[in-house]
Amino acid sequence: MNTPQASSASYYAAAYQRLSPLLPGGGLGWLTQARRAALARFARHGFPTQRDEDWKYTSLAAIAAARYDLWPAACVDPLAGVVSQRALAGAHLLVFVNGRLHPGLSRPGDLPPGVRLNSLAYCLEEQPASVDPLLLLGAAAAAFADLNLAFMADGAYLHLAADCHLAAPIQLLFIASQANLAIQQRNVLWAAAGSSACIIEQHVALGEGSYLTNALSNVVLEAGASIEHYLLQQESPAASHIATIDVRQQANSSYSSASFAFGAHLARTGITVALQGEAARCSLDGLYLTAGRQHVDHHTCIDHRQAGGTSRQLYKGVLSGASRAVFNGRVVVHPDAQRSDAEQSNRNLLLSDKAEIDTKPQLEIWADDVKCSHAATVAQLDEEQVFYLRSRGIEQAKARTMLSRAFAREMIDRVACSPLQEALDEALREKLRVMSC
Amino acid sequence: MLDIRNLQVSVDGKAILKGIDLQVKAGEVHAIMGPNGSGKSTLVQLLAGREGYAARADAVLYQGAELLGMAAEERARQGIFLAFQYPVEIPGVANVYFLKAACNAIRRHRNLPELDAIDFLALIRSRLKLLGMDESLLYRPVNAGFSGGEKKRNEILQMAVLEPTLALLDESDSGLDIDALKVVAGGINALRSPQRAIVLVTHYQRLLDYVVPDRVHVLADGRIARSGDRQLAIELERTGYADTPAGHPAPPASRA
Q: Which residue of B has its CA nearest to A385?
């Protein structure tokens, strides 16, 4: 077969043959076996196409046609400036450059007892017994998850012991500097019973090259644990960013995530939350701002499997130019999940008549005693408001920016971590400046 | 200051103003009265730069420059201010941020240095005091959740901060109780000066007890039907607009 799919499969197969001796955890039989199985699945199915319902609005043709480098070259760029510019005050900082931990730039600081924060590569090589195979293998079998499993080389590994509370946030700063690289990054966030932490995962670029970030995070919350997980996507304007977040929650646990998508040419964030224990709560926020020909896609799936679960989703988008955004929010309430309470809302502001939003709620309810709601809105700027501002001497472009910012600010106001709030506000201003041009 | 000659305005093909002539000199206060639907609001909104009107005129000159075709923000920077009849709510934009942006946009145009946060706060505090307004209002979103009276006062506050040369007030008195009316009138009177002109649009004459106009015009069916001095307003209060074309009687004074 000489289809593009077959050739991309053979490309990745050949790359795996070449790189497998270098991948971490080579001594772990279960991992090697799983990597090979994932690669075989990928060879069978390839990248999804737009005929696949889940990818109907998002074309992966460019990613499928690309022949990315799968191993980073030594980074010779000066990075200290980027790191000091991005580092949040008081945070435990790990810096990853082109997908690999950079110990020299990282400042994990003093971590309280009960917190293990490490490089995943280090854990696989030096403490393999500490890595639960189920964590790494559990994610849904899908093209990007399979490629990630086959090639994952590093990422953050966080384990919080029972009842351990981490006061300062953990900042995971991922810097991409190499054009044409595919970064297969894997994070494990594991919160034992009653523990809590705030994790900020930030993706930035040096330069404007085209590359692929294929990030996968496995998040586990045991009973009563609590995690705040912020995703800040500021990739290069030519980059592709695919993020998969797989969350499993036990009883009374609480997971809140907020995804801020500002960068990349093509971005897709897929969050799957399984409420596996009773009375688990999750809250997913999102803010996307798109300009030019950017394409940003958020897919969420919340699985209410046990009784008394609560889920909240609020996603807001501001779209300019000929950009496009997708929001697909799926909520499944299983027969045993009585007294589930699910709310979903997606609000969009279109600044241009060439911009396009595809928004789709998807509710599948198999229990009878539930409260589920969803809402989606698409609006333009209110011309009365624009005129009011202009009548006070504020020029039209500035007026439109002020109103767009007001619409987007709500999502930043909801962020509990104040140094992050400032960084987000700055990123928002910068993005709106680009969008008003 | 303002020289309007034969102004004709239509909206969606419907004629609203059918040939207005109006001259306002610096230092003057003009009141424009008239029944609902007579075109009073259209006139001041057009002067402030609202789009969507088909307007033609022999001339609409402000300080000697043609206004029609000039962008709303440009008019504001050159000193025109419209106090809205229905101030617009802008959730998510703090009043203080909005006021500072407006103030500095106008100062830039006048080649004055922009005010920093501290200087601006000093300025705005003095204006708040003038209008008997609470500082907490600065940190609320623009007009959002304001009572009717608070919205009207907020318009006058903006006017006091921006110090326009030509102030257009569109029913700034409507919906106010007598105490609020006195405060708003005080704010308007504080702006009166030989260099400025004020055009008040009002349905009732009670505001004119506190802001005494130099000239009163009655607008009816898109034309200025009568002009006179303050006595005209007092007469209208008694007789209503019944004898003006297409007019409606004014409500009894007890309701006004």
A: B88
First to last CA, chain A: 47
Q: Which residues of A touch B (CB under 8 A)?
A: 382, 384-385, 387-396, 398-399, 402-403, 405-407, 409-410
CA angle B87, B76, B35 (to 5 degrees): 50
CB contact under 8 A, B91 and A390: no
ipTM score: 0.92
SS3 breakdown of chain B: % helix, strand, coil, rounded to 5?
35, 25, 40
Helix axes B178-191, B148-162, angle to 10 degrees: 10
Distance from CA of B252 to the nearest CA of A (A): 34
- Cβ neighbors of B140 (< 8 A, separation 6 or more) are B94, B95, B146
Residue type, A263: G
- Structure-block tokens of residue A324: 């496009």
Distance CA A338, CA B170 (A): 57
Instruction: State the Cα–Cα distance between residues A290 and A352, nearest whole angstrom.
Output: 11
In chain B, which residues touch A (CB < 8 A)? 48-51, 71-73, 75-77, 81-82, 84, 87-88, 90-93, 98, 101-102, 105-106, 109, 141, 158, 162
How does pLDDT run across B140-155, given as a tens digit for each residue?
A: 999 999 988 889 999 9
Contact B88 A394 (CB under 8 A): no
Q: Answer yes or no: are the C-beta atoms of A57 and A358 closer than 8 Å.
A: yes
Distance CA A322, CA B24 (A): 48
- pTM of the full predicted structure? 0.89
Answer for the pair A354, A322: CB distance below 8 angstroms, yes or no: yes
Note the pLDDT of residue B244: 57
How many Cα atoms are found within 13 Å in the side-chain-facing hemisphere of B113?
Answer: 5
CA distances from A274 to A230, B21, B221 (A): 18, 72, 67
Nearest alpha carbon to residue A133 among A201, A32, A215: A32
CA distance B129 to chain A (A): 21
Task: Count the Cβ atoms, other than its own, within 10 Å of residue B119.
Answer: 12
What span, in angstroms and rounded, lies between the C-alpha atoms of B180 and B156?
11
